[in-house]
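agent> step 3/5: call structure_predict on target 'Retinal-specific phospholipid-transporting ATPase ABCA4-like' (Delphinapterus leucas).
agent> reason: downstream docking stage needs a structural representation; sequence fetched in step 2, passing through unchanged.
tool.input:
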Amino acid sequence: MGFARQIKLLLWKNWTLRKRQKIRFVVELVWPLSLFLVLIWLRNVNPLYSQHECHFPNKAMPSAGMLPWLQGIFCNVNNPCFQSPTPGESPGIVSNYNNSM
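tool.output (status=ok):
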């Protein structure tokens, strides 16, 4: 049996099953369409707003040691956002924890 004939028979079987279960067929069409329309509506109701570029202070990984890791967690609890790059983002600087306190 050829590939095209198998595809044709599969599509025929699928269409026959869909014709027999009309409510399920309608739900399969309406449900994704309604979700898509809700997303479009939400996008139009809540317009985009412009926000500046955000730079966060760097935090130590657990492999840097227990004290720098805990300092990074507790000193930046509120996760502040800065408009300019932080010192830890400068190229060539691996760690700026030595003079952070």
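agent> step 4/5: record observation. Residues 51-101 form one domain.
agent> proceeding.
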